Amino acid sequence: MMNTWDVIVVGGGHAGIEAALAATRLGCRVVLISAKTSRIGEMSCNPAIGGIAKGTIVREIDALDGSMARSADATTLHFRMLNRRKGPAVWGPRVQSDAAEYARAQQLYIKSSGIEIIEDEVTALDGVTDRVTGVKCRKSGSIRGKTVVLAAGTFLGGRLFRGEELWKGGRIGDLSAEALEKDLTERMFHVERFKTGTPARIVRSTVNTAELEVQRSELTKFTFSFGKYKPNDKEEVCYLTYTDKNTMNIAKDFLHLSPLMAGRIDGTGPRYCPSFEDKVVKFPDRQRHKIYVEPMGYGSRDFYLNGLSTSLPREAQLKMVRSLPGFEKAEISDYGYAVEYSYFHFSEIDETLRLRRTENVFAAGQICGTSGYEEAAGLGLIAGANAGRLAKSLEPLIMSRMDSYIGVMIDDIVSKGADEPYRMFSSRAENRLYLRQDNADRRLYRSADRFGILSEQKRELLTGNLKEADTIWNVLEGETVDGTRLSKWCRRPGVSVEDVVTRSRNLVNRDERVLASVILDEKYRGYIERNLRRHESRRDLEKISLRRISSYMEIDEICWEAREVLERERPETLARAERIPGIRPTDLNGLLIYLGRQRST
Amino acid sequence: MNTKSPEIICAVATPEGTSALSVIRVSGSGSFELLENIMSLEKNRLAGMRRKVGKIIEEGRIVDEVVAVSWPEGRSFTGEEMVEIICHGIPHSVREIMEILIRNGARRAEPGEFARRAFGNGRLNAVQIIALAALWDTDRGWKAFDSVTEECCRKLLSGIESTRETVEGIIEFGETHLDGNDKRVSSVFGDLMERAQDFIREAASIEKSSRVMIMGPVNSGKSTLFNLLTGKGRALVSGEPGTTRDGSTCFMEVSGRKMQLCDTAGTDGLGLDRSASEAVIDGLDGTERVIWMSVGGKTPPGDEIKEKAGEIIEIAAKSDLITEKETEGVLCVSSVSGEGLEELKLILSRIPGSMSLAGAAGRIFESIKESCSFISNGEYDLAAEHLSEAEIEARRIIGKGENIRLSVERALSGMCVGK
Asked: Which of A47, A219, A497, B215 is the most exposed place for a label (fewest CB within 10 A)?
């Protein structure tokens, strides 16, 4: 095996795919290893992409030239722009996709990018932990690589649960990456356990859809991708139904057989994606819960039951499903189950997504402690790009939390970790008015360019958008309404994009999407700038080092409680000190005074 | 250490309320250009020590006619490029000028930020550091001052937090998982606005009660200082020890803070002086600030005063005459040369229970009101932004820091959502 790859990607899920593609765009020779290559790009849970904040991540992935947006666009069956009436900064594009077609589209990207695909199980890292030489595989033996991206998802030490059934696996029908997990723990990586779950799939023909509320796709179709792609012309409807007292009672009757309640699962589950058992326990008085009925694909055999994730025994699942109106005669094609898996403790991962204790191993996706396809893909893209850059001896790059949700996510998970699977929310971003779904192309162009992960075609498209935005901006700056510059007029409360467009003839023939986006930038400019400045001044605190302080206990300028906390935590900079709970601004001022005194003596 | 900040900060340096003139301070690199822009002056008109008369014009409308005085970097109070705008003291136009400054790239200064920058740039020396010490004392000061007010502000803050959580919950899940929550919001805001108004009232009431006593041995220059600070020849002054017997009281305004300054008789006086001074000490109830003055800082305050005063600011008086001074932790002030007066005012301006609290309370109320109107407008994104502004303001008052990163976990934990 003399062949040394630039980047070895372990796992072919949403994270692995973006990692492999990003490294390839950097010009790296990439191999992707998956235990079952036919299932690369599979949607293991619900057949949907996007949502609030998540949809913005998909747009960001497209701005960084990833594939998720384009594959979703090509396979969309149902569109919805969430929060249309809650303000443009929190709009969330969400689509139902054809799950099988989506995976096919992703596989096509991989194959057409010249990525080598190996079907094998990675059993261990190869070489010393400080600097690995590649990975060991069950069948192929050692595969050498300059860098490795781990994106094993729920397969890492995966265990599946349903009632009293328990088996090893990362997903139903797949094996678990048992050996790899063992190798990582033997190398003393700090891993912990999370759990997640998935609901039952129902045979569509056994459901009486006439009894369900119909949810049609929105008339205005959109694409995630910033290019001029035609949205998929196939369409499906979704349905909505509700649980009632019976559903609750059945769940309660079987609760003692739930692996969660019986304590067989140790891992913490995602609060925002709870199992139905969780809901029963947490909200015992509430009987009516929304259940979205979503087709797995165009004319597909199965429905997905969004809202009824469960790991209760088969008998309970069937009874629960049949208690729903319209589901009296429903048959289950795949039963729901819970999965418990290992993930890296946040202290193991740095802001470039490299594992701190190694020089050349990166982590992405659920093994970083996140949940969700979009989160995984975003992490995968950055991990792949940084692995690729390292292989090419380039500096790693860091995404700022002020520019992107991906940056917020990475900053959050590596600086404080999470005590449950991390899901993206718009509320996590302090610069939310800037991190919108409409401007991801423009706000990420500089990062994408610096990363070097743009194809020529994409670059052309993005610079075109930037130029268009410039033209529009010049009109806004140059023209006035009643003596007010248009750009300022945009900021008035209640002024809509349409209002602005009617004010200038020069705005009529512009690109509509870019136009709306630039107007929103102007509308929120005051707020955005204030947030950026606030962030900047926090960065100044970052420059003030506290390393010279030998003992905090002697510093009279700060209160006793603060002395003890600081003595224990030993923050490196004033900014770090600021983030410690219990440290107040007055203590920071005290530290400043102390440092000043030290300096003058 | 590098505390030089790229930001331009601004603050009103005079009290709120109608007056003939108001002063707005602007500091930070780029301040000249900012002022030249909003006053429509030619470039570099404000470079160096200049004074320029001009109009602040926005969108073709004259906001106010002002005088701008500029100090170049290295020669100003903060050590940075600095401008003082002297404008008409009409609250509305002062506020508008502040807004214009902010829209054009400045931001509102945090409490103590001018001083902090001055310190960072080496413009305050080791002794003057106590000006900063007063600054880090502020939040302890709030507590000593009035726990009712603090409680009121805490209640407001928790209201802001829970309202923010509701609004954020609607943003994240309103469309997919919550029913009827949108209607609940307006009632939440009603309650919140009430709390904000309570706090405004509370802030206004404690504003009345901020008292600072000037104390010290006889003939240390208390009345001279009183006159200097208040700008009035109200206290009788003479070189004879014991001239002041009956305390004199005056409301004064220092850097936007209104306070009650009391001149008192010397603590080591005899006869009538003695009983006057004892009455003052007896009257201390643990909240007052005491400016303790002694010649050259040689006489420390007595134990009784230490015990009963809220905070003591020690001053070495007549610093122009005395060569041998006790300067450790003591501010040197000379009523003749003016030495130390600025610093003293700075310390006084840190005393809570003043106009700035009322101002902050007003701003919190405004932010909440704006947020509410954005909600009814269907702009939840901006509503949330204004709520976080209100939260920052309230946190500053309590001294909890600016970190308002929402605990999404906590905020949304009461909601039943997900697949």
From this structure: A219
Measured between CB atoms, does A586 come within 8 Å of chain B? yes
For B142, B285, B309, B328, the CA distances from B304, given in Å and listed in that order, are: 22, 11, 8, 22
Same fold: B8-124 with B211-349: no
Domain closes at, from A428, A446, A479: A428
Whether the CB of B275 is below 8 Å from some CB of chain A: the reply is no
Q: Any CB–CB contact under 8 A between A268 and chain B?
A: no
Q: Point out which residues pair with A239 in neighbouring strands.
A: A214, A293
Does B349 have pLDDT greater than 80? no
The predicted structure's pLDDT at residue B251: 62
By Cβ distance, the residue of B377, B400, B416 closest to A289 is B416
Q: pLDDT (tens digit, 9 = 90+) per residue, A463-512?
A: 999 999 999 999 999 998 888 889 989 888 778 888 898 888 899 889 99
Residue A418 and residue A480 in one domain: no
- Report if residue A434 sits inside a domain: no
Residue B271 confidence (pLDDT): 73
pLDDT tens digits for range A412-468: 898 777 778 999 999 999 899 999 999 999 999 999 999 999 999 999 999 999 999
State whether B137 and A586 contact (CB < 8 Å). Answer: yes
A 346-405 near B (Cβ less than 8 A): none
Q: Is B416's CB within 8 Å of A52's CB?
A: no
ipTM of the complex, rounded to two decimals: 0.89
Q: What is the CATH number of domain B211-349?
A: 3.40.50.300
Say yes or no: A430 contacts chain B, CB-CB below 8 A.
Answer: yes
To test the contact with chain B by mutation, choose from A218, A492, A499, A586 the residue with the greatest count of B C-beta atoms within 10 A, namely A586
CA distance B233 to chain A (A): 37
- Minimum mean pLDDT range among B128-142, B153-167, B169-183: B128-142
Nearest Cβ partner for B1 among A271, A307, A544: A544
pLDDT value of position A1? 47
Q: With CA atoms as reference, report the closest residue to A303 among A159, A166, A429, A203.
A: A203
Question: Is there a contact between B132 and A540 if contact means CB atoms under 8 Å apart?
Answer: no
Helix, strand, or coil here: A481? strand
A9, A68: one domain: yes
Nearest partner of A165 among A30, A383, A336, A416, judged by Cα: A336
Residues A68 and A121 reside in one and the same domain: yes
Of A282, A483, A540, the CB nearest to B60: A483
The predicted-structure confidence for B202-214, as pLDDT tens digits, reads as follows: 877 665 556 788 8
Q: pLDDT band at B165, cuts 50/70/90?
A: confident
CA nearest A454: which of A385, A393, A397?
A385
Say if A450 falls within a structural domain: no
What does DSSP assign to residue B235? S
Tallying the residues shown for chain A, one arrives at 601
Residues 433-462 of A with CB under 8 A from B: 433
Tokens matching residue A233: 């012309």
pLDDT bracket for residue B401 (50, 70, 90): low
* From the candidate CATH numbers 3.40.50.300, 3.40.50.880, 3.40.50.970, 3.30.1360.120, the one assigned to the domain spanning B8-124: 3.30.1360.120
A393 — phi, psi (to 5°)? Answer: 60, 35
Considering only the beta carbons, identify the residue of A283, A530, A593 that sits closest to B416: A283
- pLDDT of the residue at B16: 63
Say how far apart CA B187 and CA B89 lie, in whole Å: 38
**Residue B155's closest CA among B189, B181, B194?**
B194
What is the domain partition of chain B in residue ranges? 8-124, 138-207+355-412, 211-349
- Indicate the fold that domain B138-207+355-412 takes in CATH: Four Helix Bundle (Hemerythrin (Met), subunit A) (1.20.120)
A555 and A522 inside one domain: no
Chain A residues touching residue B120 (CB < 8 angstroms): 592
The pLDDT of B280-289, averaged and rounded, is 71
Torsion of CA B108, B207, B78, B122, to 10 degrees: -130
Check whether residue A331 and residue A412 sit in a common domain.
yes
Q: Residue A486: give the domain boundaries.
A: 458-531
Q: Which residue of A has its CA nearest to B120?
A: A596
